[in-house]
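Task: sequence design from structure.
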């Protein structure tokens, strides 16, 4: 085979990303907000596994902005998004709020994935650096959030938004308040 018939690394990555997301969508077609009794007794990582397995609905914001959770493990959350024309600002590129929402989801859920039963969190601070414009010519991006520090009251995480070719589009950090969610 010549080089033109071999998929590039970016094409292979894109195909893998599409396949992973499609498998998750097959397991779960529901979007909504889980009822309190559905998540009672679940740790953060158990909740994300239930979403990925289709036992809990995906959050509505993902449907609104065309992104979804594709992977979670303790201290790590990965979201995949499709930048679209509906996300454009007046300058003809993806709005910074789309970057921020995708990265806030990744870094916040990375923190949430480490929390035990009965604990919750909220974002205290989100710092975003957009390093490259994004348009709908980039078919998919992934936001990967990783916990830097998981404390009893404050947790921090960092995240990166990349394309299938490995290009960095933005990076972010967060500080989250961890609290007792039990009533």
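Answer:
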């Amino acid at each position: 085979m010549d080089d033109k018939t071999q998929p590039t690394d970016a094409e292979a990555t894109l195909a893998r990303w599409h396949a992973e997301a499609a498998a998750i969508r097959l397991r779960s077609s529901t979007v909504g907000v889980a009822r309190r009794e559905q998540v009672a007794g679940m740790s953060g990582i158990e909740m994300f596994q239930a979403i990925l397995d289709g036992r809990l609905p995906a959050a509505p914001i993902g449907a609104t902005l065309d992104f979804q959770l594709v992977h979670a493990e303790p201290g790590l959350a990965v979201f995949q998004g499709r930048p679209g024309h509906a996300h454009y600002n007046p300058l003809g590129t993806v709005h910074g709020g789309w970057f921020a929402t995708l990265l806030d989801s990744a870094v916040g859920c990375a923190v949430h994935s480490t929390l035990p039963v009965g604990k919750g969190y909220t974002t205290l601070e989100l710092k975003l650096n957009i390093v490259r414009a994004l348009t709908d010519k980039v078919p998919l991006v992934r936001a990967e959030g990783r916990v830097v520090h998981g404390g009893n009251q404050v947790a921090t995480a960092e995240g990166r938004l990349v394309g299938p070719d490995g290009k960095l589009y933005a990076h972010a950090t967060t500080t989250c308040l961890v609290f007792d969610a039990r009533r």
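The radius of gyration is 17 Å.
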